[in-house]
Structure formats: structure tokens, C-alpha cells
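hey can u run this one w/ zinc ion bound, need the C-alpha cells asap thx
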Amino acid sequence: MQKTLARFEEYRETVKKRASKLQKKHPRCLADGNELLRFYGTTLACSLGLNGSSSLCISDKCCVCRIIRNGFSSKKELKGGVGVFTTSTSGRAFEEPSATSMVRKALIVCRVIAGRVHRPLENIQEIAGQTGFDSLAGRVGLYSNIEELYLLNPRALLPCFVVICKP
Ligand SMILES: [Zn+2]
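ok here u go:
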């Protein structure tokens, strides 16, 4: 966990540094790397949270424990190889029903460094020829709230707490 925090802060500095070199200034990126609070929907294979159990398991199949132990580092969390998929609301975090009823669903609430967000609705020409975006907005809702956000670098996420859903 300590290592994940260090990586997260390191990543924030990288994003801030990159933002400072851009002609067009992004005040939020310069200030804190554009930190947001996001939901990550995943599954749990152990008894964490049951009867007050708070010990993490070491199963590789248990996504919650693996992420809390190691952060978002494995390729498994990069959706379609693009990035780590996060949502602004808990309801949207689960797209597909889980394969078996044996697994329990959980939400990991994360602090994320969104950095420069590539918004699909923004002027395409502005995007063309510019690289170095840190995240991609999937669906953008009313009032340009980013409902779905892909973090391109798994270091951009810091798991904060876990909400275990009732089966
Ligand atoms: Zn577990």
C-alpha cells in the first residue's frame, strides 16, 4: 500500500511536469494533476467483509485483495488494453453481470490523477497532432460530467476504500 501511494504521488508529479511544458495551460493539471474521485467495479473471491473479516487473501483470482495489495498494476485491469475503466457513479461501474454467482461484487473508490482528459466531444482539431493525454473520457454526461473515464496509466489510481455489494 505504501508503495502504491509513492507511485501515485510520483505519477502526479510527472503529470504536473508534463502540463507545465504545454502551451495551453491546464490549471487543474498544474495544481494537483487533476485529481478526481472515481469508482472501479470489480469482484471479490474471498470472505473479506463477511462477519467483520478484514484480512486480505492472497488468491490471484480475488481482484479486490490483489488491487489493495499491489495497486492497479496488472494487465488484467486494463480494459481492452486501453486503460483502467472508472465511472463517476457506482451504478455505472458494473456493465456486465458477473459470470458466476459465487463471486461477490465490490466497488473500489479510488483517487485518480486524470491529468489531461481526452474528451471525445472536444474539438477534434485541437486533439490532432497533440499527444500526451493522460486519460480518455468514454461517455460524457450532461454538464460535461465525465461518466466513464479510462486512466491510461495504472499508476494514476490509488485505491482508497472498498464497498462490498450485497449479493
Ligand atoms: Zn480476497
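The chain has one domain: 2-164. anyway lmk if its weird
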